[in-house]
Amino acid sequence: MILPGLIDVHTHLRVPGGEHKEDFATGTAAALAGGITMILAMPNTSPPIATPAVLADTLTIAQQSIRCDVGLYAGASGEHLSTLGEMARQTAALKIYLNDTFGTLRIDDVPTLIDCFKIWPKEKPIALHAEKQSMAVAIAMSAVYDRPVHIVHVSRKEEIELIADAKMRGLKVTCEVAPHHLFLNQSDFERLGPLADMRPVLGTPEDVASLWSHINDTVDCIATDHAPHTLEEKRSANPPPGIVGLQTSLPLMWTAVTENRLSQKRLVELMHHNPKKIFDLPEQPDTFVEIEPEVKTTIRNSDILSRCGWTPFDGREVVGKIKRVILRGEEVFAHGQVIAEPGSGRVITANSV
Ligand code: NCD
Ligand code: ZN
């Protein structure tokens, strides 16, 4: 069974400043092992990727160490508005955080938000972390300034329903859902404690059912929100939110295909065609993923290539094994081994700029 190289538009690679959790070489190895050949990396690093200087340094490190193709997000920060526009050319998109989460990036006043929408070039995508009523703000901004917005990791019934209504009215809103919001719910806290804590928090069974009921229309992309933190950090007095997802996204979604919860065609739309279209990403010629569609495997912490080395899905049985991944004609993952060397991936920007 052959699938195109998958695209993850929501990954945290922790460079700069969080390399003990993940770096470009480990994170992109995990991506390839999960059938993902292109990722967009989030800017909530330390320092954040919110100035041209941090962006330039991060791009240099990326070029030396990525094993698959990586685009960077510029992070919106009220302190650095004067240089925001300078980052557009070398990044894939802008990320605006309207809600609290890991890291310091946050826009919490309307004038700054308006500035971001006016400064960022109209042809470049804007992605927003916008939960609950913030999502209404994000959709209003899209309507007022007549430009597309992409809402990240949608997790609640009320939110997916609001997006469905916005789309019905012709507004330029797209969204992604993370596998953990489709395959875990609030009750998993009892078993996993802080290991099941992330932003947005896990939903109720009703939220999860609502996301699934919109999988064929309202949901545009599956995005991992791969957010590594070490076990030590997660078990500390002040655990950071976030879990990894690069290696488990395709096996979980393929299992859903085998259970007739979505079609194979829809999976490819959600994990390749739609991300590519929404973010105007370049073609990766001769790039594909070979899977053994009926082989059952068990997800294990010991197989996690992310530096943090654990997953909340440890012990879960899935159907579909990733056998080989080919990127631009080269074998980059085969039979459990990552072959691509650090530095062999390409830094990408959106096609249009
Ligand atoms: C993310 C992280 O750790 O960077 N955490 C999370 O719980 N999702 C930040 C984010 O995407 O909100
Ligand atoms: Zn995230």
Within CATH, the superfamily carries the name Metal-dependent hydrolases
Q: Could you list the spans in which at least 5 consecutive residues all have pLDDT below 50?
A: none
**Would you identify the CATH architecture?**
Alpha-Beta Barrel
Number of strands: 14
Q: Proportion of β residues? A: 15-25%
Overview of this protein structure:
This protein is of the alpha/beta class and 353 residues long. The protein has one domain (2-348): Metal-dependent hydrolases (TIM Barrel), CATH 3.20.20.140. It is built from 11 helices and 14 strands. The strands form 2 sheets. Strands 2, 3, 4, 5, 6, 7, 8, 9 and 14 form a 9-stranded parallel beta sheet that branches. Helix 5 runs parallel beside helix 8 (205-213). The chain is globular, with a radius of gyration of 19 Å. Residues 10, 12, 42, 225, 227 line the site of zinc ion (ZN).
Write a concise synopsis of the structure shown.
With 353 residues, this protein is an alpha/beta fold. It contains eleven helices and 14 strands.
Furnish the topology, listing elements before pairings.
Blueprint: E1 2-4, E2 6-11, H1 24-33, E3 36-41, H2 52-65, E4 69-75, E5 93-97, H3 110-119, E6 126-129, H4 132-145, E7 149-151, H5 157-168, E8 173-177, H6 179-183, H7 188-192, H8 205-213, E9 221-222, H9 231-234, H10 249-258, H11 264-278, E10 288-298, E11 317-327, E12 330-334, E13 337-338, E14 347-348
Helix pairs in contact: 4-5, 5-8
Zinc ion is lined by residues 10, 12, 42, 225, 227.
